[in-house]
Specification:
The complex is a heterodimer.
Chain A (H helix, E strand, L loop, with lengths): L3 E4 L2 E4 L5 E7 L7 E6 L6 E5 L3 E2 L7 E6 L2 E6 L9 E6 L6 E2 L3 E5 L1
Parallel strand pairs in A: 2-11
Antiparallel strand pairs in A: 1-3, 3-8, 4-5, 4-9, 5-6, 7-8, 9-10, 9-11
Chain B lengths: L2 E5 L3 E2 L5 E8 L9 E7 L6 E7 L4 E3 L7 E6 L4 E6 L8 E7 L9 E5 L2
Parallel strand pairs in B: 2-10
Antiparallel strand pairs in B: 1-3, 3-8, 4-5, 4-9, 5-6, 7-8, 9-10
């Protein structure tokens, strides 16, 4: 399986801040990378696929970049509803594998 | 609107077989390119993909769990069924089904393995 490593594992920020989360794959995955947001008690929700393509309905303050092994998720102008856990997931080969998650807390 | 919903037991005993059903609406399991998968998430941990089945009955399994998993589909009912044998307390998790495009996911069902 392809291993996905996210950093940081947790981050504290304030409303209005910009936050960047990184994800590294153990081998090249081209742009087969998705980002999910998960709130307590809910299923993960797809934010970005193909590394940088925003899922329909996702606010433009979310953006993704990267290819190969290194990827980033940037959330600009944080809103109260953005405080959640974020996961990257490779979609290059089965099984799709997730990073360990980044918990975004309110400072 | 595409929706998926999981159903099945919420409590199973060790060594028993778990059978979960995913009922899909808003799309057809017989449509070319369509797939539905199962994912589980232990409390406080990251999700883990288990199995995936496509419209043409092509099936994929997580290598680490392959010997315990079976995924099937009933096109007439638009349902996907996952069976997992020899359940253990470490299999306690929320089990989700999801479209192969990774959106949407079902609401999930918490399955506890305990005697």
């Amino acid at each position: 399986d392809i291993q996905m490593t996210q950093s940081p594992s947790s981050v504290s920020a304030s409303v209005g801040d910009t936050v960047t989360i990184t994800c590294r794959a153990s081998q090249g995955i081209s742009n087969w990378l998705a980002w999910f947001q998960q709130k307590p008690g809910e299923a993960p929700n797809l934010l970005i696929y193909a590394a940088y393509t925003l899922q329909s309905g996702v606010p433009s303050r979310f953006s993704g970049s990267g290819s190969g092994t290194d990827f980033t998720l940037t959330i600009s102008s944080l809103q109260p509803e953005d405080f959640a856990t974020y996961y990257c997931q490779q979609a290059n080969s089965f099984p799709p594998t997730f990073g360990q998650g980044t918990r975004l807390d309110i400072k | 609107q595409i929706t998926l919903k999981e159903s099945g037991p919420t409590l199973v005993k060790p060594k028993q077989t778990l059978t979960l059903t995913c009922t899909c609406s808003g799309f057809s399991l017989s449509t070319s390119g369509v797939g539905v998968g199962w994912i589980r998430q232990p409390p406080g941990k990251a999700p883990e993909w288990l199995a995936l089945i496509f419209w043409d009955d092509d099936k994929r399994y997580s290598p680490s769990l392959k010997s315990r998993l079976t995924i099937t589909k009933d096109t007439s009912k638009n349902q996907v069924v996952l069976t997992m044998t020899n359940m253990d307390p470490v299999d306690t998790a929320t089990y989700y089904c999801a479209h192969s495009n990774y959106y949407p996911w079902g609401q999930g069902i918490l399955v506890t393995v305990s005697s």
